[in-house]
What we know:
- The chain is an alpha/beta fold.
- The protein has helices at 3-28, 60-70, 74-78, 132-136, 153-167, 202-209, 225-236, 250-259, 266-276, 305-312, 320-326, 328-331, 336-345, 351-357, 361-378, and strands at 31-37, 43-46, 49-52, 85-92, 96-105, 108-116, 141-146, 171-176, 189-194, 216-219, 240-245, 277-287, 294-302.
- 41% of the residues lie in helices and 23% in strands.
- Helix 7 (225-236) crosses helix 9 and helix 9 runs antiparallel to helix 10.
- The termini are far apart.
Amino acid sequence: xxxxSKSTRASAATHQRGIExxxxxxxxxxxxxxxxxxxxxxxxxxxxxxxxxxxxxLTPEQTRAIAQHLIANDEDRARLDKLRDYDCSWGMPxxxxxxxxxxxxxxxxxxxxxVIPFDVPTFDTLKLPxxxxxxxxxxxxxxxxxxxTGSGKSSTMAALVNHINxxxxxxxxxxxxxxxxxxxxxxxxxxxxxxxxxxxxFRAGLHAALRQDPDVxxxxxxxxxxTIDTALKAAETGHLVISSLHTPDAVSTITRLVSxxxxxxxxxxRMRLCEALQAxxxxxxxxxxxxxxxxxxxxxxxxxxxARDLIKDPARTPExxxxxxDAREQFGMQTFDQHLIDxxxxxxxTYEAAVAAATNxxxxxxxxxxxxxxxxxxxxxxxxxxR
Length: 387
């Protein structure tokens, strides 16, 4: 190796150590996402805000070198300049694991890294409603975890798998792009397959999974009607299927799933869905009052006989929201606004943050006034001391 090559390699190694130090510093400040872009500074998402983390802007060459460093697959690394959108996972010993997306913008590279904690989450650590222990105990059917990007869907699905792993003797097969949380076998056997590495795609992986004696199949996402159709067949044939959708609440989840099928198949799809669906868990993340960390507001639909009747009839599906609200005490369901009231009353989130996240802000404000009035009436009156 000539002196120039040695110098170039040494310089690259030094640069990579510098980047890894920045990544570690961001993790130490509880960053959830890291943004690395040519022509910009290193940015980290901390407590929901994307903040600059360095002063020096990255060059296209530096960003390309980082992208190459993060790709573990030799074949993919060799064709880096032909990649447009690429997903993988990457680990840094002693620091953490990351879900990595490499993309092109303005003809140069950008990298977005989502932090994956070492510890598999639980319902308690995520502050999720206790009813999810009942949801996770379902023997068959479909559980959908929904919410916008970055609302914690992957963590909740991992917590569902973790609860099953801790409490049941099952074979769980996961299909992920990429694999995020690493589940070790406890009471269950957990088989984790990465799209593009262990199987070609979600649909192919799901078809294969049904021949692998699974009790539970966790699908990272359902990108098309064919995958949804196969997932429904799995649920219909006695498996428990857990998956996610980018929908904001239970009602829109039903509408979105049905609309993904061709028009002539939608009526049948709706009937199949109303029979297979076990629960919809929808999430929104709100900032904590002290500015450190976020807390989930969660809507939960449990598919009772009455709920299935509402799903079956498209004209009545919008009534699901009121049904969830009214069935809270009997079945443990809750709307977003009901949970937000609890969070605001317990001062877990600020009143302002709760109003901003409410489905119906005006109705939420009215209900909060009622709750506060009831709380004042119920508060014990201090006895007047005798003289």
